[in-house]
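assembly run, all chains below
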Amino acid sequence: MAQRRILFTINHAPFGSIHYTEGLRAVLGATSGIDEHEVDVLYLGDGVYFALRGVDRSDTLKYIDTLAKAGRKLKVDQLSLEERRIAREDVAPDVEVISRPAVRELIAKADFTAGF
Amino acid sequence: MANLYLIGKPFADTAVGLAREDPGAEVVLLQDGVYLSVQALLAAGKKVYAVSSDVDRRGLSGKIGRGVGLIDYPQLVDLLLANKVLNFV
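ok done. output:
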């Protein structure tokens, strides 16, 4: 299989389930190997709580660091933040806040998506 | 190829909001997703399906919204293979 563009969406809030960390592990898997797929990581719904400044990243840090080294920035849906009254300054500085039109563009550009 | 939104209950708000604004969206209601109100999606002209076994076992046969297509698992598989899937289950 050739290189593909894969959008990973993370809907689960951090902690209490394996999704927030397994999602990032899967992202890393997709970026490695023969095909080295292009990936985007997008936090939606309650998943956006992971983007908060000060969230404990001890079990995800190695994945995030590796993605950062590969030039991949985590993205978070602005509308989901607003619905939860999370201010932009409460979002970690290494996470990019994107608008709904930008979310739709990511969906349109992706060859596949995977939800966690 | 449509963007096929698989929608269950836990992430329904996000999923329905995204699907409603997505011109290429079609929706499949799964598991407790069959309890959702889909008026907004139907009003926006979206194709909406519900998995019939999930409808039947919840006693909702005949109560599911008009305009919602009932599909079985083989039909769901056909839809999964023919479209870009966005999982919200």
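Chain B is about 35% helix and 25% strand.

The helical segments of chain B are 12-21, 39-43, 52-57, 73-82.

not gonna interpret more than that til we talk
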